[in-house]
Amino acid sequence: GAVVSQHPSRVICKSGTSVKIECRSLDFQATTMFWYRQFPKQSLMLMATSNEGSKATYEQGVEKDKFLINHASLTLSTLTVTSAHPEDSSFYICSAKTGVDQPQHFGDGTRLSIL
Amino acid sequence: QQQVKQSPQSLIVQKGGISIINCAYENTAFDYFPWYQQFPGKGPALLIAIRPDVSEKKEGRFTISFNKSAKQFSLHIMDSQPGDSATYFCAASWRGTYKYIFGTGTRLKVLA
């Protein structure tokens, strides 16, 4: 149980394009999902908390106009990197909670490479 | 005060040995402490977690030891195997926010 699916697993695109990453909870409803960014050999950096039906809460220093988050249903959250540039290249990981006092379960991440 | 300090940064253990990873925190409001295992190119997977009302929790070869007064907790991997070679992250969370504060990670290598 508690499976989180993330798609795509890898994307390569040209500078200036926008990229959408999907995060789905496959066997549970997730009122809260999280988006992280991870640089090589570093820890996970929380970008934003996504609540179903409401605006995402962004961490300090994360550009909300750059990283658009939509949590339209209890099983799907999306992260759109708008007008991506090489410095946006990174490993993006989502997670979801099965309940209020439950652990976060992570997807397998998306490797984004901007040329 | 929101930091979780993790050590060591890297660890090499012989097969069959015990791997020990330590974490320390300052914020006494933290009330949930999970450990995650991450393989290259994959997302973190929950290993084991503990709350402050318990001093130790064991699941198979993995044990968390928790010292509330010292504000420290550690992961022990007994009978370490080459398949345990991965990066391990501790984390802390507090009621009401749902957010995790992650440690910096420990890269474990178990030699065959």
Describe this structure in words.
The complex is a heterodimer of chains A (115) and B (112). Helix content of chain A is 0%, strand content 53%. Chain A is mainly beta. In chain A, the strands form 2 sheets. In chain A, strands 2, 4, 5, 6, 9, 10 and 11 form a 7-stranded mixed beta sheet that branches. Chain A has a 4-stranded antiparallel beta sheet with strand order 1-3-8-7, with no helix packed on it. In chain A, a hairpin with a 6-residue loop joins β9 and β10 (104-106). The model of chain A has no long low-confidence stretch (mean pLDDT 93). Helices cover 0% and strands 54% of the residues of chain B. Chain B is globular and about 40 Å long. Classes of the chains: A mainly beta (115), B mainly beta (112). Chains A and B meet through β5, β9 and β10 of A and β5 of B.
- Rounded to an integer, what's the Rg of chain A over CA atoms? 13 Å
Give the overall shape of chain A: globular
Please mark out the parts of chain B with pLDDT under 50 across 5 or more consecutive residues, or reply none.
none
Q: What is the first-to-last residue Cα distance of chain A?
A: 37 Å
Main sheet of chain A? 7 strands, mixed
Q: Based on the structure, what is the oligomeric state of the protein chains?
A: heterodimer
User: How many alpha or pi helices of chain B?
Assistant: 0
Structural class of chain B: mainly beta
Question: Mind describing the biggest β-sheet of chain B?
Answer: 6 strands, mixed
Provide the fold topology.
The complex is a heterodimer of chains A (115) and B (112).
Chain A: E1 4-7, E2 10-13, E3 19-25, E4 32-38, E5 44-51, E6 57-58, E7 67-73, E8 76-81, E9 90-97, E10 104-106, E11 110-114
Parallel strand pairs in A: 2-11
Antiparallel strand pairs in A: 1-3, 3-8, 4-5, 4-9, 5-6, 7-8, 9-10, 9-11
Chain B: E1 4-7, E2 10-14, E3 19-25, E4 33-38, E5 45-50, E6 56-59, E7 62-67, E8 72-77, E9 86-93, E10 100-102, E11 106-111
Parallel strand pairs in B: 2-11
Antiparallel strand pairs in B: 1-3, 3-8, 4-5, 4-9, 6-7, 7-8, 9-10, 9-11
